[in-house]
Design brief:
Length: 224
């Protein structure tokens, strides 16, 4: 009995160490964008607009009327993890990248995939599959954006596979030229919650190397 207990304990410790190593590799280069306390690192897109954003129990919550919230920092090539939760109703929100390209957030559970639904590159490319969960449940986006190539994994399912976003933005895009831009959370429609938003900025060499791996289908991306 004692030997069996020691073997079990040893195996559990080995698995824990392996998990820590995997987690450590995953977190390498990743930057958390929410501190769980306040809106540090973020500001309203319209400084004069209503502020419906607040942090409750380490969750970023928006209640209308509100204004879009965007990062102080700007990014170009990156990998991004976002966890969000919509409320009953339309649940309309979105994640804007480079202040130009919106991955739509919507209460789309049980609906046909369309270019205005959850996971869509808004009004441009519908998701390959509707991977939405019911309102009130936490959902995830794992996004890889390099140049004009976008891959989105929604709740573990690939809904955009290395698609070309084109030169023009989507929805309420800014008029800025192609280049780094802030991340923006849409806050002028419905109540929505966010947590565990983190980003892995990519240098030019890192982006080129990762894109080659994506093109040759030789990489497993976060969220898969």
């Amino acid at each position: 009995m004692r030997i069996r207990f020691l073997i079990t304990l040893t195996l559990a410790a080995a698995f824990a160490c392996a998990a820590d190593r995997v987690d450590g590799q995953y977190k390498k280069g990743w930057v958390p964008l929410l501190n769980g306390k306040d809106l540090s690192g973020w500001h309203l897109r319209n400084a004069q607009g209503p502020n419906g954003w607040k942090v409750l129990d380490r969750v970023l919550v928006n209640a209308p009327p509100g204004t879009d919230l965007q990062t102080d920092a700007e990014y170009y090539d990156f990998q991004l993890h976002v966890e969000f939760k919509v409320t009953p109703g339309e649940g309309n929100s979105g994640v804007y990248m480079r202040d130009k390209y919106e991955v739509q957030i919507f209460n789309s559970f049980g609906k046909q995939a369309q270019d205005t639904g959850c996971g869509a590159l808004y009004k441009k490319i519908a998701p390959a599959v509707n991977a939405s969960k019911p309102d009130g449940e936490w959902q995830t986006y794992d996004i890889t954006f390099i140049g004009r190539r976008l891959t989105v994994i929604h709740n573990g399912q690939k809904v955009h596979d290395n698609v070309d976003v084109g030169p023009m933005g989507t929805g309420a895009a800014s008029n800025r030229a192609d280049g780094p831009g802030p991340l923006r959370l849409q806050g002028d429609h419905e109540a929505v919650s966010f947590r565990n938003i983190r980003i892995r900025p990519l240098s030019k060499s890192e982006a080129e190397r990762l894109q080659k791996q994506i093109d040759s289908h030789k990489v497993k991306l976060p969220g898969q």
